[in-house]
Design brief:
It contains five helices and eight strands, in the order ββαααβββαβαββ. By secondary structure, the protein is an alpha+beta fold. Strand 3 and strand 4 form a beta hairpin. The longest helix has 15 residues. It is globular and about 40 Å long.
């Protein structure tokens, strides 16, 4: 089992995952966006920098956390979202709206599935996707996730991984 999180994971040319470290304030607008909050937390309770830093610290402590980055010009990468994975849960946010519905989520999830295999996971679990978050449900189903339970406001999913 691998214990050290890589600094960079290449997804494809021009798309990568970068270990989260340092200043995260540029991500704050993603968590102040009411549409994002509704889809992620089913509420409108905006994040401030303290809540964002707490969330990132927690996600890093329990698993792996990366910024999703795109190459905007040679040598210059821009974070457009984040992805977190632990043995108990998985989450992804394409925080920059203009990069949604382009297949980036599917590519990132597929890459994280390979990382989960390296870590020895038997499956990737998604604790809850709200029933009204149809784009997320469609994305996870297209990646091979299966419905595995009903939650108060939605459903949980699992992607069994081949050993």
């Amino acid at each position: 089992m691998i214990n050290s999180q890589p600094e960079i994971i290449a997804v494809e040319p021009g798309l990568r995952l970068a270990s989260i470290d340092g200043d995260h304030s540029f991500a704050l607008p993603w968590y102040k966006d009411h549409r994002n909050l509704h889809l992620m937390d089913n509420d409108d309770d905006e994040y401030d920098i303290i809540r964002l830093e707490w969330m990132y610290a927690f996600l890093k402590r329990v698993g792996e956390l990366y910024f999703i980055q795109i190459l905007i010009r040679e040598g210059v990468w821009k974070a457009i979202g984040d992805v977190a994975m632990s043995s108990e849960d998985f989450s992804i946010l394409i925080g920059e709206r203009k990069y949604r519905h382009q297949g980036i989520g599917v590519k990132v999830i597929s890459t994280m599935a390979e990382r989960a295999k390296e870590l020895g996971y038997d499956a990737i679990r998604v604790r809850e996707i709200y029933r009204f978050n149809e784009p997320a449900i469609a994305c996870f189903l297209s990646c091979g996730f299966e419905l595995c339970g009903k939650t108060k406001d939605g459903y949980s999913y699992v992607l069994p991984l081949d050993p």
